[in-house]
Amino acid sequence: MPIIKTVPPEVASGAVARVYDAMQAAIGFVPNGLQALSSSPHCLTAQADHIRYYMGHPTLPGPMLAAIRYLVAGHTDCAYCVGINLGMLMQMGIDRDALIAARADIELLPFAERDKAMVRLALQVVRDGHSLTRGDLDAVRALGWSDQEIIEVIDHATHAVALDMLLNAVQVEAEGM
């Protein structure tokens, strides 16, 4: 149970109910991590918009984005986000042992080099935002990634850091599914 007051789905109204209904329709439940934001309809709606945009992204693969969130959560020590993203990746057909091994060595991700390069870039930014060079960008551009995709991956990774910190702070627990 988080240490902050949340709005349970069965009593939600207004903007909170709309976000919950959309999440229920999309994935079949309202994640605890989303419920943790429910005391602020603004924060909840902003997170839902972020999720909606990236879930429907036309060029950034879902498994790559989930792997970024999973590996970022390992970096931020967000057990909730490690667990939920590990579960998502496994539902996408990615082997659990390979994912666990990838936390120690990203090269073990069962992805094409193009996607692994973007995951490496995202983690580089999260670990040291000052370390990114023009050469790093040129390397992912050479693999066919656009500047829009690069910025959006960096946005996705850094947004995950902020969310992980928030969820750690309010002590969100894994779903009891």
Could you characterize the architecture of this molecule?
- This protein is mainly alpha-helical and 177 residues long.
- The protein has 2 domains: 9-55; 62-169, AhpD-like, CATH 1.20.1290.10.
- Helices cover 65% and strands 0% of the residues.
- The protein is built from 9 helices and no strands.
- It has helices at 14-27, 32-35, 41-55, 62-76, 79-91, 96-102, 113-127, 134-142, 147-169.
- α4 (62-76) runs parallel beside α7 and α4 crosses α9.
- The longest helix is centred in the last third of the chain and has 23 residues, at 147-169.
- The two termini are 14 Å apart.
- The model has no long low-confidence stretch (mean pLDDT 96).
Q: Could you name the CATH class of the largest domain?
A: Mainly Alpha
* Rg estimate, integer Å: 16 Å
Number of helix segments?
9
Number of domains: 2
How large is the share of residues in beta strands? under 5%
By CATH, the topology of the largest domain is AhpD-like
Pattern of helices and strands? HHHHHHHHH
CATH superfamily caption of the largest domain: AhpD-like
Q: In the CATH hierarchy, what is the architecture of the largest domain at level 2?
A: Up-down Bundle
Average pLDDT for all residues: 96
Give the distance, in angstroms, between the N- and C-terminal Cα atoms.
Answer: 14 Å
Helix content: 55-70%
Largest pleated sheet? none
Taking pLDDT < 50 over at least 5 consecutive residues as the criterion, the unreliable ranges are: none
State the shape: globular
Oligomer: single chain
Number of E strands: 0
